[in-house]
Specification:
Elements (H helix, E strand, L loop, with lengths): L4 H50 L3 H7 L12 H13 L5 E3 L4 E4 L12 E4 L9 E3 L5 H11 L6 E5 L18 E12 L3 E11 L7 H7 L4 E6 L6 H64 L3 H47 L2 E14 L1
Parallel strand pairs: 3-4, 5-9
Antiparallel strand pairs: 1-2, 2-3, 5-8, 6-7, 6-9
Helix pairs in contact: 3-4, 6-7
Protein backbone atom coordinates (compact mmCIF):
# COMPACT_ATOMS: atom_id res chain seq x y z
CA UNK A 1 0.00 0.00 0.00
CA UNK A 2 1.59 3.31 -1.05
CA UNK A 3 2.60 5.63 1.71
CA UNK A 4 1.23 9.12 2.01
CA UNK A 5 3.49 12.07 1.40
CA UNK A 6 3.42 12.81 5.11
CA UNK A 7 4.72 9.34 6.01
CA UNK A 8 7.54 9.60 3.46
CA UNK A 9 8.61 12.94 4.97
CA UNK A 10 8.67 11.64 8.51
CA UNK A 11 10.59 8.49 7.61
CA UNK A 12 13.09 10.46 5.51
CA UNK A 13 13.92 12.87 8.34
CA UNK A 14 14.86 10.15 10.82
CA UNK A 15 18.35 9.26 9.54
CA UNK A 16 19.54 12.90 9.54
CA UNK A 17 18.28 13.44 13.08
CA UNK A 18 19.95 10.27 14.29
CA UNK A 19 23.18 11.24 12.52
CA UNK A 20 23.20 14.65 14.22
CA UNK A 21 22.72 12.99 17.60
CA UNK A 22 25.69 10.69 16.96
CA UNK A 23 27.88 13.50 15.55
CA UNK A 24 27.73 15.67 18.71
CA UNK A 25 29.51 13.22 21.03
CA UNK A 26 32.10 12.47 18.30
CA UNK A 27 32.93 16.17 17.94
CA UNK A 28 33.15 16.53 21.68
CA UNK A 29 35.53 13.57 21.91
CA UNK A 30 37.68 14.98 19.09
CA UNK A 31 37.85 18.38 20.80
CA UNK A 32 38.93 16.75 24.05
CA UNK A 33 41.54 14.65 22.22
CA UNK A 34 42.95 17.73 20.48
CA UNK A 35 43.11 19.55 23.83
CA UNK A 36 44.92 16.61 25.42
CA UNK A 37 47.46 16.42 22.58
CA UNK A 38 47.98 20.15 22.17
CA UNK A 39 50.83 20.44 24.66
CA UNK A 40 52.46 17.29 23.26
CA UNK A 41 52.21 18.63 19.69
CA UNK A 42 53.66 21.99 20.71
CA UNK A 43 56.52 20.31 22.55
CA UNK A 44 57.26 18.09 19.54
CA UNK A 45 57.25 21.07 17.16
CA UNK A 46 59.55 23.02 19.44
CA UNK A 47 61.92 20.06 19.74
CA UNK A 48 61.93 19.60 15.95
CA UNK A 49 62.65 23.28 15.41
CA UNK A 50 65.50 23.15 17.94
CA UNK A 51 67.08 20.12 16.25
CA UNK A 52 66.75 21.79 12.87
CA UNK A 53 68.43 24.97 14.10
CA UNK A 54 71.25 23.02 15.70
CA UNK A 55 72.25 21.70 12.28
CA UNK A 56 72.20 25.11 10.60
CA UNK A 57 75.52 26.75 9.93
CA UNK A 58 76.09 29.89 12.02
CA UNK A 59 76.11 31.90 8.80
CA UNK A 60 72.61 30.56 8.08
CA UNK A 61 71.54 31.71 11.53
CA UNK A 62 72.69 35.21 10.62
CA UNK A 63 70.80 35.15 7.32
CA UNK A 64 67.61 33.65 8.71
CA UNK A 65 67.77 35.99 11.70
CA UNK A 66 67.41 33.19 14.22
CA UNK A 67 69.45 32.16 17.25
CA UNK A 68 69.54 29.12 19.47
CA UNK A 69 69.37 31.44 22.46
CA UNK A 70 66.27 33.31 21.34
CA UNK A 71 62.96 32.90 23.15
CA UNK A 72 60.46 35.20 21.49
CA UNK A 73 62.60 37.87 19.83
CA UNK A 74 65.57 37.90 17.52
CA UNK A 75 68.83 39.40 18.69
CA UNK A 76 70.84 40.46 15.69
CA UNK A 77 74.58 40.13 15.63
CA UNK A 78 75.27 43.68 16.78
CA UNK A 79 72.88 43.32 19.73
CA UNK A 80 74.42 39.97 20.65
CA UNK A 81 77.90 41.49 20.65
CA UNK A 82 76.63 44.43 22.71
CA UNK A 83 75.15 42.01 25.23
CA UNK A 84 78.37 40.00 25.55
CA UNK A 85 80.43 43.12 26.16
CA UNK A 86 77.87 44.53 28.59
CA UNK A 87 77.62 41.36 30.67
CA UNK A 88 81.41 41.22 30.89
CA UNK A 89 81.95 44.86 31.87
CA UNK A 90 79.06 44.89 34.36
CA UNK A 91 80.11 41.67 36.07
CA UNK A 92 80.11 42.49 39.79
CA UNK A 93 78.44 45.86 39.18
CA UNK A 94 74.95 44.63 38.29
CA UNK A 95 72.67 41.63 38.66
CA UNK A 96 72.95 40.19 35.13
CA UNK A 97 70.34 37.74 33.77
CA UNK A 98 71.73 36.17 30.60
CA UNK A 99 68.57 34.22 29.83
CA UNK A 100 66.35 37.32 29.57
CA UNK A 101 69.14 39.61 28.32
CA UNK A 102 68.54 41.98 31.23
CA UNK A 103 70.38 43.42 34.21
CA UNK A 104 69.52 45.37 37.34
CA UNK A 105 71.57 48.31 38.56
CA UNK A 106 71.30 49.19 42.23
CA UNK A 107 73.20 52.39 41.49
CA UNK A 108 74.80 54.05 38.50
CA UNK A 109 78.31 52.75 37.70
CA UNK A 110 81.28 55.11 37.85
CA UNK A 111 81.71 54.94 34.07
CA UNK A 112 78.23 56.46 33.57
CA UNK A 113 77.17 58.21 36.79
CA UNK A 114 74.16 59.99 35.22
CA UNK A 115 72.13 56.90 34.24
CA UNK A 116 69.24 55.89 36.52
CA UNK A 117 69.25 52.73 38.59
CA UNK A 118 66.74 50.00 37.81
CA UNK A 119 66.16 47.14 35.40
CA UNK A 120 67.48 47.31 31.84
CA UNK A 121 66.50 44.94 29.02
CA UNK A 122 68.04 44.53 25.59
CA UNK A 123 64.74 43.52 23.97
CA UNK A 124 61.53 45.53 23.69
CA UNK A 125 59.94 46.47 27.00
CA UNK A 126 56.32 46.78 25.89
CA UNK A 127 54.26 49.16 28.03
CA UNK A 128 56.29 48.71 31.22
CA UNK A 129 57.56 52.21 31.99
CA UNK A 130 59.60 50.96 34.94
CA UNK A 131 61.98 49.03 32.66
CA UNK A 132 64.74 50.80 30.72
CA UNK A 133 65.30 49.82 27.08
CA UNK A 134 68.99 49.08 26.61
CA UNK A 135 70.35 49.72 23.12
CA UNK A 136 73.52 50.78 21.33
CA UNK A 137 72.73 54.50 21.55
CA UNK A 138 71.92 54.45 25.26
CA UNK A 139 74.40 56.55 27.31
CA UNK A 140 75.20 53.52 29.47
CA UNK A 141 75.94 51.38 26.41
CA UNK A 142 78.18 54.11 24.98
CA UNK A 143 80.10 54.30 28.26
CA UNK A 144 80.40 50.50 28.51
CA UNK A 145 81.71 50.16 24.95
CA UNK A 146 84.22 52.93 25.58
CA UNK A 147 85.37 51.24 28.79
CA UNK A 148 85.67 47.88 27.00
CA UNK A 149 87.69 49.43 24.17
CA UNK A 150 90.25 50.68 26.68
CA UNK A 151 90.64 47.45 28.64
CA UNK A 152 94.12 45.99 28.63
CA UNK A 153 94.16 42.38 27.42
CA UNK A 154 97.33 40.52 28.42
CA UNK A 155 98.91 38.05 26.04
CA UNK A 156 97.44 34.64 26.77
CA UNK A 157 96.69 31.15 25.50
CA UNK A 158 92.97 30.46 24.99
CA UNK A 159 91.05 27.27 24.36
CA UNK A 160 88.03 27.72 22.07
CA UNK A 161 85.32 25.09 22.45
CA UNK A 162 83.74 24.45 19.04
CA UNK A 163 82.50 20.95 19.93
CA UNK A 164 80.15 22.19 22.67
CA UNK A 165 79.31 25.50 21.02
CA UNK A 166 75.79 24.44 20.07
CA UNK A 167 75.97 25.84 16.53
CA UNK A 168 77.71 24.92 13.30
CA UNK A 169 80.19 26.97 11.27
CA UNK A 170 81.75 25.35 8.22
CA UNK A 171 84.58 27.88 8.36
CA UNK A 172 85.66 26.59 11.80
CA UNK A 173 85.40 22.84 11.25
CA UNK A 174 88.92 22.58 9.72
CA UNK A 175 90.36 24.26 12.83
CA UNK A 176 89.17 21.65 15.33
CA UNK A 177 92.19 19.97 16.88
CA UNK A 178 94.57 22.68 15.66
CA UNK A 179 96.51 25.46 17.35
CA UNK A 180 97.97 28.77 16.28
CA UNK A 181 98.42 32.48 16.95
CA UNK A 182 96.11 35.44 16.36
CA UNK A 183 96.33 39.20 16.71
CA UNK A 184 93.81 42.04 16.50
CA UNK A 185 95.01 45.61 15.90
CA UNK A 186 93.01 48.82 16.18
CA UNK A 187 93.65 51.22 13.30
CA UNK A 188 92.45 54.73 14.09
CA UNK A 189 92.45 57.67 11.67
CA UNK A 190 92.22 61.15 13.19
CA UNK A 191 91.45 64.08 10.93
CA UNK A 192 88.31 66.09 10.31
CA UNK A 193 86.51 62.97 11.58
CA UNK A 194 87.49 59.78 13.37
CA UNK A 195 87.55 56.45 11.57
CA UNK A 196 88.16 53.10 13.28
CA UNK A 197 89.11 49.73 11.79
CA UNK A 198 89.91 46.35 13.34
CA UNK A 199 92.74 44.46 11.65
CA UNK A 200 92.75 40.70 12.30
CA UNK A 201 95.35 38.11 11.37
CA UNK A 202 95.89 34.50 12.44
CA UNK A 203 98.00 31.52 11.39
CA UNK A 204 97.83 27.91 12.51
CA UNK A 205 101.01 26.29 13.78
CA UNK A 206 101.30 24.33 10.53
CA UNK A 207 101.53 27.59 8.59
CA UNK A 208 97.99 28.03 7.26
CA UNK A 209 96.78 31.64 7.16
CA UNK A 210 93.21 31.91 8.41
CA UNK A 211 90.61 33.91 6.52
CA UNK A 212 88.92 36.97 8.02
CA UNK A 213 85.70 34.96 8.28
CA UNK A 214 87.46 32.21 10.24
CA UNK A 215 89.00 34.72 12.66
CA UNK A 216 85.70 36.51 13.17
CA UNK A 217 83.90 33.21 13.80
CA UNK A 218 86.67 32.01 16.10
CA UNK A 219 85.88 34.84 18.52
CA UNK A 220 82.22 33.78 18.53
CA UNK A 221 83.16 30.54 20.29
CA UNK A 222 83.09 30.11 24.06
CA UNK A 223 86.65 30.22 25.36
CA UNK A 224 88.64 29.64 28.50
CA UNK A 225 92.07 30.92 29.51
CA UNK A 226 94.65 28.15 29.47
CA UNK A 227 97.54 30.37 30.59
CA UNK A 228 98.76 33.97 30.75
CA UNK A 229 102.05 34.73 29.04
CA UNK A 230 103.84 35.73 25.87
CA UNK A 231 102.20 34.36 22.72
CA UNK A 232 105.45 34.35 20.69
CA UNK A 233 103.93 35.44 17.40
CA UNK A 234 105.25 33.93 14.21
CA UNK A 235 106.66 36.14 11.46
CA UNK A 236 103.73 35.04 9.29
CA UNK A 237 101.15 36.52 11.65
CA UNK A 238 103.08 39.76 12.05
CA UNK A 239 103.47 40.06 8.28
CA UNK A 240 99.77 39.34 7.70
CA UNK A 241 98.49 42.04 10.06
CA UNK A 242 100.97 44.58 8.65
CA UNK A 243 99.80 43.72 5.13
CA UNK A 244 96.16 44.17 6.14
CA UNK A 245 96.98 47.56 7.66
CA UNK A 246 98.61 48.63 4.39
CA UNK A 247 95.67 47.27 2.36
CA UNK A 248 93.18 49.12 4.57
CA UNK A 249 95.05 52.41 4.27
CA UNK A 250 95.31 51.92 0.51
CA UNK A 251 91.57 51.20 0.27
CA UNK A 252 90.83 54.36 2.26
CA UNK A 253 93.09 56.38 -0.04
CA UNK A 254 91.38 54.95 -3.13
CA UNK A 255 87.98 55.71 -1.64
CA UNK A 256 89.04 59.30 -1.01
CA UNK A 257 90.39 59.54 -4.55
CA UNK A 258 87.10 58.30 -5.96
CA UNK A 259 85.22 60.82 -3.80
CA UNK A 260 87.50 63.61 -5.06
CA UNK A 261 86.90 62.66 -8.71
CA UNK A 262 83.14 62.51 -8.18
CA UNK A 263 83.05 65.91 -6.44
CA UNK A 264 85.16 67.54 -9.15
CA UNK A 265 82.98 65.99 -11.87
CA UNK A 266 79.83 67.30 -10.18
CA UNK A 267 81.40 70.74 -9.83
CA UNK A 268 82.50 70.77 -13.49
CA UNK A 269 79.03 69.73 -14.67
CA UNK A 270 77.41 72.41 -12.53
CA UNK A 271 79.87 75.04 -13.79
CA UNK A 272 79.29 73.98 -17.40
CA UNK A 273 75.52 74.30 -16.98
CA UNK A 274 75.91 77.74 -15.44
CA UNK A 275 78.29 78.85 -18.19
CA UNK A 276 75.98 77.53 -20.89
CA UNK A 277 73.07 79.53 -19.44
CA UNK A 278 75.13 82.71 -19.17
CA UNK A 279 76.50 82.28 -22.68
CA UNK A 280 72.95 81.96 -23.95
CA UNK A 281 72.10 85.27 -22.25
CA UNK A 282 75.12 86.93 -23.88
CA UNK A 283 74.14 85.62 -27.30
CA UNK A 284 70.61 86.97 -26.86
CA UNK A 285 72.00 90.43 -26.02
CA UNK A 286 74.41 90.30 -28.99
CA UNK A 287 71.59 89.31 -31.34
CA UNK A 288 69.42 92.14 -29.96
CA UNK A 289 72.25 94.67 -30.45
CA UNK A 290 72.83 93.60 -34.07
CA UNK A 291 69.12 93.91 -34.79
CA UNK A 292 68.85 97.36 -33.17
CA UNK A 293 71.93 98.72 -34.94
CA UNK A 294 70.52 97.55 -38.27
CA UNK A 295 67.23 99.28 -37.45
CA UNK A 296 69.09 102.47 -36.54
CA UNK A 297 70.85 102.55 -39.90
CA UNK A 298 67.57 101.98 -41.72
CA UNK A 299 65.58 104.57 -39.74
CA UNK A 300 64.55 107.56 -41.91
CA UNK A 301 64.05 110.25 -39.26
CA UNK A 302 66.32 111.58 -36.54
CA UNK A 303 63.76 111.03 -33.73
CA UNK A 304 63.52 107.33 -34.71
CA UNK A 305 67.30 107.03 -34.74
CA UNK A 306 67.54 108.60 -31.27
CA UNK A 307 64.86 106.29 -29.86
CA UNK A 308 66.66 103.24 -31.22
CA UNK A 309 70.00 104.46 -29.81
CA UNK A 310 68.43 104.66 -26.34
CA UNK A 311 67.27 101.04 -26.70
CA UNK A 312 70.80 100.10 -27.83
CA UNK A 313 72.22 101.79 -24.72
CA UNK A 314 69.87 99.84 -22.43
CA UNK A 315 70.70 96.55 -24.19
CA UNK A 316 74.46 97.23 -23.93
CA UNK A 317 74.06 97.85 -20.20
CA UNK A 318 72.19 94.55 -19.83
CA UNK A 319 74.93 92.79 -21.80
CA UNK A 320 77.59 94.23 -19.50
CA UNK A 321 75.63 92.94 -16.48
CA UNK A 322 75.41 89.50 -18.09
CA UNK A 323 79.14 89.50 -18.76
CA UNK A 324 79.92 90.46 -15.17
CA UNK A 325 77.63 87.63 -13.98
CA UNK A 326 79.54 85.21 -16.23
CA UNK A 327 82.85 86.44 -14.83
CA UNK A 328 81.60 86.27 -11.22
CA UNK A 329 80.31 82.73 -11.76
CA UNK A 330 83.73 81.67 -12.99
CA UNK A 331 85.17 83.02 -9.75
CA UNK A 332 82.56 81.12 -7.73
CA UNK A 333 83.52 77.88 -9.47
CA UNK A 334 87.21 78.45 -8.72
CA UNK A 335 86.44 79.12 -5.03
CA UNK A 336 84.40 75.89 -4.85
CA UNK A 337 87.31 73.97 -6.39
CA UNK A 338 89.71 75.53 -3.89
CA UNK A 339 87.40 74.44 -1.03
CA UNK A 340 87.36 70.84 -2.28
CA UNK A 341 91.14 70.83 -2.69
CA UNK A 342 91.55 72.19 0.86
CA UNK A 343 89.21 69.45 2.12
CA UNK A 344 91.24 66.79 0.32
CA UNK A 345 94.49 68.17 1.74
CA UNK A 346 92.97 68.00 5.23
CA UNK A 347 92.00 64.38 4.64
CA UNK A 348 95.41 63.53 3.27
CA UNK A 349 96.86 65.06 6.41
CA UNK A 350 94.89 62.61 8.57
CA UNK A 351 97.13 60.97 11.16
CA UNK A 352 96.70 57.28 11.82
CA UNK A 353 97.74 55.11 14.72
CA UNK A 354 97.77 51.35 15.25
CA UNK A 355 97.37 49.78 18.69
CA UNK A 356 97.68 46.08 19.42
CA UNK A 357 94.43 45.00 21.11
CA UNK A 358 94.67 41.22 21.32
CA UNK A 359 97.61 38.83 21.10
CA UNK A 360 96.84 35.17 21.77
CA UNK A 361 97.80 31.61 21.19
CA UNK A 362 94.73 29.46 20.57
CA UNK A 363 93.65 25.85 20.63
CA UNK A 364 90.36 24.75 19.08
CA UNK A 365 88.66 21.70 20.59
Amino acid sequence: MPSSPGSISSVGSWPSTKSAVRRRPIEAEFTQLRFDLDSEISETMSDTRQKLLEHFDAEVHDRLRVSLAESSEFLNRAEEQLWRITSHVLAGLADVDTETRSFVLDKAPAMSPEVPAGRYVLTRTGDDDTVHRYRRQHPLAVAILDAAANLEAPEAELTFDYTNWGATAEALKPLVGRSGCAVVDHLRLDGEGVEDHLLMAAHTDDGVEMTSDQIRRLFDLPASVASIGAANLSNGVVGSVERRAAETLQAISEKQGKWFDEEMDKLDRWAEDKRAGLKADLREHDDALRFLKREARQAASLPDKLAIQKRIKVTETSREDAWRAYDNEAGTVEKAKDAIIDDVEARLGTAHSIRRVITIRFNVT
